[in-house]
Write a structure and sequence with these properties.
mainly alpha; two-stranded antiparallel ribbon; 3 helices; 2 domains; 2 strands; 84 residues
Length: 84
């Protein structure tokens, strides 16, 4: 079952029941072609990100220490809470 509403741009927004959404997700996850396409897209994005941002070794080897150094400069301890 789907219902319609309007967004701020006047375009319709379709609301789908949770049961219908689960069925569509199940079909998508079990579609080998879709999984292969998604995997290829994710591999591309991960490679692009790796080329743009340095890895842990390029930061001096100790990611936690690096984050602590950054957070100390900024007076913000949120960087320290990143998973190691």
């Amino acid at each position: 079952m789907s219902t319609q509403a309007q967004n701020t741009a006047g375009q319709p927004i379709a609301f789908v029941s949770a049961q219908a959404l689960r069925a569509r997700m199940h079909d998508a996850v079990n579609d080998a072609h879709l999984r292969h396409s998604f995997r290829g897209a994710m591999d591309f994005l991960m490679a692009k990100r790796a080329a743009q941002f340095p890895d842990e070794g390029e930061l001096g080897g100790d990611w936690s220490r690096h984050c602590t150094k950054i957070s100390g400069k900024r007076g913000n301890r949120s960087f320290v809470r990143f998973p190691s």
